[in-house]
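quick one, 108 residues, struct below
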Amino acid sequence: MNQEVFVHSVKGPDGLPLTFADLPPAGTTRWVVRRKAEVVAAVRGGLLTLDEACRRYRLTVEEYSGWQHAFDAYGTLGLRITRSQRYRETQPDLPAGSRRDPAAHAMR
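---
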């Protein structure tokens, strides 16, 4: 007999209990360190499955795995890395040589 176990709270990144109600809202697009750490803690503790987290927050498995790896390696400071893929998708076209033009940085 296969029974599903529902977890009501897990240990959050700050050591305090983290519940489903404490998680970032579905569809969150602004990812600060605290929110990333909460999602990692929720998946690790069984509050969300990896598939649920990816669907709820529109993440790829690779993106979540990067958060988990950064958190394991560097703690919350490792989560300060920006979501470069999201920025590439939403960044307006900039003139060549402008400050944010990747080609301009490659020439330096």
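The chain has five helices and two strands.
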